[in-house]
Specification:
alpha+beta; Cathepsin B, Chain A; 2 domains; 7-stranded mixed β-sheet; 9 strands; disulfide bond; Pept_cys_AS; Peptidase_C1A_C
């Protein structure tokens, strides 16, 4: 190659790099406006731009492969490193896997073989509250628990009431640790022991732990009197559970692809070690691929308006991202709900 050719190649490379940098900077400006991002200094802004560009490269690489069941996008978490994301957006207790293994030695609930619909979406029945946002507080466990209680209360009573995660964060201190993590089991037990839980409207979310409001703690708007495990690593039983009611589950939510998920059926790769709590609100299939409909607690700018479709029948007994491993139901109404579902035949999407 001649010196002239080398010089032209160098100039082209520099021009292309500069153009790419300009493009990503413009894209970052638009992204900041969309998500209301304002940084305290130009130095911090440049730092976040570098992270944004790294995530942009990751997103473009994944989407360019063309053989995935899902796509990624520069969502509200695109200026976070993967480490920052994992540190602030999860919240299932670090001891969750050990606790769940211990709990699995107890007798899980057994469902009768009554058959299930081909698809279910509890949102279509008005049994799911709006997607919420836990912010930078590791309280996914509280959102998963209230979500299940809200849905069961709607199914049984006909009333959909948004319940207070903040009450759980502030007042459920026997075992759970507020924004530092917790478990749905303990949240359910707290509601049982307290004889109920207050509404979100009366005891609103603050995204940080505060002192327990004893007056509001005494307002027992909705209660439960039992909960149980779905048989672990048993997708057939989990399917029957979801046909009866939305179900709290633990998943591995810490993968980078999950951070930047946009749409489609999430199929991993991901660990089966659970670190995040969500709510399954239904199931279905698309182009021959079965999926769970999962409600997250990261706001509506993540995923499909706050939801993700996660692959069913993945071939791993623990399910995609461990979703079959640690499912919880509000147990005392299960048989009544199953009878109601079968009798009415209405909870099919």
């Amino acid at each position: 190659m001649s010196k002239l050719s080398l010089l032209l190649l160098l100039l082209f490379t520099l021009h292309f790099s500069h153009h790419l940098s300009e493009s990503s900077s413009d894209l970052f400006d638009s992204w900041c406006k969309k998500h209301g991002k304002i940084y305290p200094s130009e130095q911090e802004r440049q730092h976040r731009l570098k992270i944004f560009e790294d995530n942009l490269e990751f997103v473009n690489h994944h989407n360019s492969l063309g053989n995935s069941t899902y796509t990624l996008a520069l969502n509200a978490f695109a200026d976070l490193t993967h480490h920052e994301f994992r540190s602030s957006k999860l919240g299932l207790s670090n001891s969750a896997n050990d606790f769940i293994r211990l709990k699995h030695s107890e007798n899980p609930v057994q469902f009768p073989d009554l058959g299930v619909p081909d698809s279910v979406d509890w949102r279509n029945q008005g049994a799911v509250t709006n997607v919420k946002d836990q912010g930078n507080c590791g309280a996914c466990w509280a959102f998963s628990a209230t979500g299940a209680i809200e849905s069961v209360n709607k199914i049984v009573s006909g009333s959909l009431v948004s319940l207070s995660e903040q009450e759980l964060i502030d007042c459920d201190r026997s075992y759970n640790e507020g924004c530092d993590g917790g478990l749905m089991d303990y949240a359910y037990q707290f509601v049982i022991d307290n004889h109920g839980i207050d509404t979100e409207k009366d005891y609103p979310y603050q995204a940080k732990q505060k002192s327990c409001n004893r007056n509001k703690l005494a307002r027992h708007v909705v209660t439960i009197d039992g909960y149980a495990d779905v048989p672990p690593n048993n997708e057939k039983e989990l399917l029957k559970a979801v046909a009866a009611q939305p179900v709290s589950v633990g998943i591995c939510g810490s993968e980078r692809a999950f951070q930047l998920y946009s749409k489609g059926i999430f199929s991993g790769p991901c660990s089966t070690s659970v670190d995040h709590a969500v709510l399954i609100v239904g199931y279905g299939s698309e182009n021959g691929v079965n999926y769970w409909i999962v409600k997250n607690s990261w706001g509506t700018s993540w995923g499909m308006n706050g939801y993700v479709h996660m692959q069913r029948n993945s071939g791993d007994k623990s399910g995609i991202c461990g979703i079959n491993y640690a499912a919880k139901i509000i147990s005392t109404v299960v048989l009544m709900i199953i009878q109601y579902v079968i009798h009415k035949g209405i909870f099919v999407s």
